[in-house]
Design a protein that fits this description.
Blueprint: H1 10-38, E1 49-54, H2 60-69, H3 76-85, E2 95-100, H4 105-113, E3 120-124, H5 130-140, H6 145-152, H7 155-160, E4 175-179, H8 185-199, H9 202-210, H10 215-228, H11 235-247, H12 255-262, H13 272-275, H14 299-306, E5 315-318, E6 326-329, H15 332-348
Antiparallel strand pairs: 1-2, 3-4, 5-6
Helix pairs in contact: 2-3, 3-4, 5-6, 10-11, 10-14, 11-14
Length: 353
């Protein structure tokens, strides 16, 4: 008689079954966790790269909402889950961050929690007006444009950096700079002062001194030259005209300073009513270089003043052919002929203001 098979105890079956369920559940949880961490969760429509700016004072909820509402993350809950696991919610770094298409939560959270910012390229070209300058900065950085403009108009702030309020704009050197998006207005000003000090080398300071000018006066004169012509080749010659007039004790009689004084750079003709404007910037009325620049001149124009052409001209006037070039003169008689030709050309075009 054959022996019967031994029956597997019920408790053993339960243990095996429970073990299989546990292994399956563990595998499922592991798979899901892997998906939450490493599966691509960034989707950028029709682009490979996007940038997100996280404001100062943001919470994890703010960041998650920002990412989701901009359509940059697919699964909102998976990002938030990992962010909290990595303690990102305990310290949010403000700034501008580069996000690439197909990025995982793991990579995205790592960039954010370590504050690995992508700098802003601030392109600062020659321009008119502190308000426009503040607006340019405010559009590209977190810094508030109104707050910056208030600082630019504060004589105590100007004095802190070694300038009069009128000369304060000369501290800002047009160039292309890299800033972190969350740079404060105060740190922005500190950086601009460092860039000013870098630009004004001992060699440039020596050239300014040889002309009998301070760096601030050079910038103020350069701002006039900036307005007078777009022709780079003429800038050193025009600068030479004004330096000659200063040496002779003559009024600069620079039309752009009148436009600045009356607040209208659209004027094509300067009339007697404009010349009577009572402003220290009106060089038809007040001698010497204005107390500050009338715009933010380019570094090339500043260099044109420092390397002004030596000649005998004390007058110049726009050419009547509207080429953008000027006619130069050493005598008033010749200048009057040039000016008459230009005025007649304006009249023929129907330009009376």
């Amino acid at each position: 008689m054959s022996k019967g098979k031994k029956k597997i105890p019920f408790w053993f079956k339960v243990v095996i079954g429970f073990g299989l369920i546990t292994i399956g559940l563990f595998g499922f949880i592991t798979f899901e966790a892997y998906q939450y961490i490493y599966k691509p969760n960034v989707y950028i429509q029709q682009k490979d790269v996007a940038y997100i700016c996280i404001p100062t004072g943001s919470t994890i909820d703010d960041v998650t909402r920002l990412l989701y509402e901009k359509g940059l993350i697919i699964n909102r809950s998976s990002f938030e889950w990992l962010a909290k696991k990595r303690n990102y919610n305990q310290r949010i770094f403000p700034g501008r961050y580069k996000i690439t298409n197909g990025m995982s939560n793991n990579r995205l959270v790592e960039i954010l929690r370590t504050g690995t910012q992508s700098p802003v390229k601030l392109v600062f070209n020659p321009m008119r007006g502190k308000d426009r300058f503040a607006g340019l900065v405010g559009r590209q950085l977190e810094a508030d444009s109104i707050a910056l403009l208030n600082l630019l108009n504060d004589p105590n702030v100007a004095a802190k950096y070694g300038f009069s309020l009128e000369a304060f704009p000369s501290m800002f050197v047009p160039n292309t700079y890299e800033f972190f998006w969350n740079t404060s207005t105060e740190k922005f000003l500190d950086r601009m002062k460092r860039e000013y000090d870098i630009f004004w080398t001992d060699a440039r300071k020596a050239k300014a001194a040889s002309l009998g000018l301070t760096p601030a006066e050079v910038v103020a004169l350069a701002s006039i030259v900036e307005e007078e012509t777009v022709k780079s080749s003429e800038k050193p010659r025009i600068a030479g005209v004004y330096l000659n007039r200063i040496k002779k004790g003559m009024l600069l009689q620079a039309d752009p300073t009148v436009k600045f004084a009356v607040g209208d750079f659209t004027l094509r003709r300067i009339l007697n009513k404009h010349l009577s404007a009572d402003s220290p910037y009106n060089t038809y009325k007040y001698a010497g270089i204005p107390p500050g620049p009338i715009n933010f001149p380019s570094t090339s124009t500043v260099n044109a003043v420092l390397n002004a052409e030596k000649h005998s001209y004390i007058y110049f006037c726009a050419r009547e052919d509207f080429s953008g070039y000027s006619n130069f003169a050493s005598t008033l008689a010749q200048h009057n002929r040039n000016a008459t030709a230009y005025r007649n050309a304006l009249s023929r075009k129907g330009i009376f203001r």
